Each structure stands twice: as structure tokens, then as C-alpha cells.
Amino acid sequence: MPADRPVALDEYPIHQAPLSMKHLVSGDRNAYDRCIFHVFDHTGRAVLVLGLGVYPNAGVIDAYATLRVGDELLAVRASDALTDDRMNLSVGPLSVTVDVPLRQLTLRCAADPDDPDGLSYDVTWTAEFPAVWEPHHIQRRGDRLMLEGRRFVQAGHVTGTIRARGEEFTLTPGEWTGTRDRSWGVRPIPGEDGGRAAEEHRPEGFHWLWIPVRFEDRFLMVIAQEDADGHRTLSEALQVFPEGSGRHDVQLGWPHTEIRYRSGTRHPVGAVVHLTDPAGRKPLELGVQILASSPLAVGAGYPPAADWQHGTWQGRGWTDRRVYDLSDPTAHPMAAFGVTDHSARFTLDGRVGHGIFEHGSFGRHEPSGFADYSSVAP
């Protein structure tokens, strides 16, 4: 095996530590750097969720794409050995190309020659608002750091085509929206014994909301993470305006959410997010109408997925395509214990917008009236 040598990125004055750009400052096996995109129409016909991640200390690069159409979820996943070319964001049939940083990206999934009716797409994602930081995200169990992430979020429009099941979707601005999130840091990769932290510090409950919303003249980002007692550990309500508009980003107070659940479940059908205007005097209500839902624990590799999770070594050149039937919720019992991304129609002060209502609620959550893991909405 050749000795460790400089990589192409070492030519540029971008180093953050006296190391090659090939290496991270942290030796944590759970170090990661990845992205997620949401591409969805405004009627609820289709929701495309896709992402790509690298795990430098595990030596893995992987990617996924899922398309929810009707009661079917079509999934494509790929994984391989990470190379020294960190600018090549492709694995198997899936790729993300940065055409203009923070402004335009191309998202592709090549067609499967053995399954012409399978999922493929060629999408151009174009920003309409500046990228903004999300709050620094830290989670611990006891004394152990489980997650530390730095993220930015952005909204825009999409053009191109998605093909699946003999149908072609033409993506046009005004009828489709695209949001994205970039994150890096430390996040658990399956395969490690949780030790004392898992045994003695299992949380009683976890309640999560991540809500990027694109209106014609503004972008709204709401985040709320709470524990079993409703204690807020992460919070954000930020209103962002287009570059050149002359308007500054503004905070919209402490978000409080009333969620309407489908009876007998924790599946949201609608919600109202209570906010306040920048002066702190006028109440604002962000109305939410769920259009379509895509569970991230089915096909997309998020925990507690049973068939594949991000960062796990699958061998060289691994590609997997499959179709999940979502018509029977009992067929995927673990999906209810993972986060679900819902495309939604939003209203705010007479405006109509579209975005993602990402939601997960597990275990006890006092403000929602959930007493334990088995409790659901009446």
C-alpha cells in the first residue's frame, strides 16, 4: 500500500489544522459530512427525498433517494469506499454536483437498465434565498457526546424531470419547491456498543420539529426539540428575505406548536405554529396542512431502519433498489419510531407557501399528552 500522500485539496489555502485535507481533526468514528434535499410538488402527488454523506473515519461514502407516489415508496441506495477525491460527490447511480456554491446544484439518479420503470431523475436545484445557519446542535447521554452538528438550510425552486413507474414528472417553478440542509460533525453510526450511556441514560422521550417553508417573498425556518417534560433544548424561528431586498433576517419569537394527529397515531394531519412579529407585539400563526408523507426510517437509511443505515460498510460498489408498500402502516412498525418528512401547504398572515413539516415524537411528551412509548392521539 502506498504511503500517505498529499491530496488535491492540499494545494489550496483552506486548511483548518496542521493535517492533510484527507484527515479530520477528530478521530471519532462517528464523524460525518452530508446533505439532504427535499423536492416536492404543491399538490401532494410526489415527495422526493435524497442525500449523500461521507464518513471519513469509517472510510465510507453513501447516498440514497426515495420517491413517495401514492402508497408506494421507491428507493435507491448506494455505498462504496471513500476515496481521496472529496470533490466527487457521486456513488453508484446517485450524484450531487455543486455548479455554483450556495446557489445552484444538480441532482441525478441514473436509470437502471434492468428496470426502466424504476426511479431516476435529473434535477437542477436553484436557491432563491441565502443559506442560513441553524442553531448549533448538541446531544448528550449522560457524559457521552452523541451528536454535535453544524448545519445550514436553504430554500429554492427546482427544474428538470423525475421518472418512475412509467410516469414522468416535469418540475416547474411555482408548482414544485426544493429545500436543502447541509450538516457535518459527529452523529452515531450503527455498529457500536452504546455502553453505559445506552443502558443508564436512555431518554424517556424525544419530540422534534424541523420546518423549512418557502413563501414567494420570504423563507421561514422553525426548529424545536424537546425532552419528555417539554424542556426545550433547541429552538429557532427565523424569517429570511432574498438577497438584495434590503430587509434583514428577523427572529419570530419562541415557537409553540399545536399539532392535530390522526386518531390512534402520532401521525400529524395539520398544525398551527404560534409565533410573534419582530416587534414582539403581534401574534403570528403559521398554519400547516399536510399533503404527503415520507418516513425516513423506510428506504432513506435513517434510524431505526432495519435494512440499511447511513455510514455502515456494505462492501465496495454496493447498490440497492427496492419498492416499499406504505398502504399498510403495520407492515413497517419501526417507521413510527423514526422521523417523518411531510410535504405541506403553509399559511402566514395571508400568504401561502410550501415546505417540509419534519416531525418525530417518541416516548413520553408531557405537552402533547403522550404518557409513554405506547400512547397515541385519541
List the helices and strands and how they pair.
Elements: E1 31-41, E2 46-55, E3 60-69, E4 72-81, E5 90-91, E6 94-100, E7 104-109, E8 120-127, E9 132-133, E10 137-141, E11 144-164, E12 167-171, E13 176-186, H1 195-200, E14 205-214, E15 219-227, E16 232-240, E17 250-251, E18 256-261, E19 268-276, E20 283-295, E21 318-325, E22 340-348, E23 351-363
Antiparallel strand pairs: 1-2, 1-13, 2-3, 3-4, 4-21, 5-6, 6-7, 7-8, 8-11, 9-11, 10-11, 11-12, 11-13, 14-15, 14-23, 15-16, 16-17, 18-19, 19-20, 20-22, 22-23
Task: List its traits.
AttH-like fold, nine-stranded antiparallel sheet, 378 residues, mainly beta, 23 strands, 1 helix
Structure notes:
By secondary structure, the protein is mainly beta. The chain has a single domain (30-186, 202-368), classed as AttH-like fold. 2% of the residues lie in helices and 52% in strands. The protein has one helix and 23 strands. The protein has one helix at residues 195-200, and strands at 31-41, 46-55, 60-69, 72-81, 90-91, 94-100, 104-109, 120-127, 132-133, 137-141, 144-164, 167-171, 176-186, 205-214, 219-227, 232-240, 250-251, 256-261, 268-276, 283-295, 318-325, 340-348, 351-363. The longest helix is centred in the middle third of the chain and has 6 residues, at 195-200. The radius of gyration is 21 Å and the shape is globular.
